[in-house]
């Protein structure tokens, strides 16, 4: 499961949005700004610092829960300390999703940075995909790219929501709001990917993704470009790529509600534009 993106533990796409033709979001038809404010009442996106060993261990512990306990993707015997890690973590940056009320870690995601010394072996995608596109530096600019992987929400966290979050049928209003936000918690992880990309001057994402997840992401306005045919990689998966600024423009056009959350009210978008302007002046 090195680079494959399939979001174990969740039956919905990142954002958890249902297959609806309308633009309803986690706040159910709230204006975009109100949707972001509602989301922020319940979840925080936490970027894990390189030297923050305690938080990194929290990432690895959550990944062990998801990939070794809840899903049979990795062998627990290979991770006897209860922390799931692999060779790509040496170039990985990480994000955690914090549920504010319980102070529990709800999810995590990793961005694998390129290998400047051996760009052709930077990502798992390069190991499983032989399409000529990945050899074209114009269309697959490895040193400006990172691979999205280990995107996960724990089933155990979701179960706890049913156990203690809504114990009564006559819910207080704030619990009703939280019920609407919980299925869409994954949006905070995507926002974390954007923040980490900006921190490391990453302009492109690649991934090896399940086709159903790709289709569901399109409902958020996120349209990955396929790279060649499906590959056999922990099941049938689709290598794919997306440019960050193109993605955010499309999301803003199609899903302004989602854009507000992913860009933190436009703050990340402004930062991206500033970085691009600085690059063009060099």
Structure description:
- With 282 residues, the protein is α+β, with helices and mostly antiparallel strands.
- The chain has one domain: Gcn5-related N-acetyltransferase (GNAT) (Aminopeptidase, 3-Layer(aba) Sandwich), CATH 3.40.630.
- Helix content is 38%, strand content 18%.
- The protein contains ten helices and nine strands.
- A hairpin with a 4-residue loop joins strand 3 and strand 4.
- Helix 1 packs across helix 9 and helix 8 crosses helix 9.
- It is globular.
What is the number of helices?
Answer: 10
The total number of structural domains is 1
Q: Return the CATH class.
A: Alpha Beta
Return residue spans where pLDDT drops below 50 for at least 5 consecutive residues. Answer: 10-29, 163-172
Q: Give the DSSP E fraction (strand runs of 2 or more residues).
A: 15-25%
CATH homologous superfamily identity: Gcn5-related N-acetyltransferase (GNAT)
Main β-sheet, in a few words?
A: 9 strands, mixed
Radius of gyration: 18 Å
User: What distance lies between the first and last C-alpha atoms, to the nearest angstrom?
Assistant: 39 Å
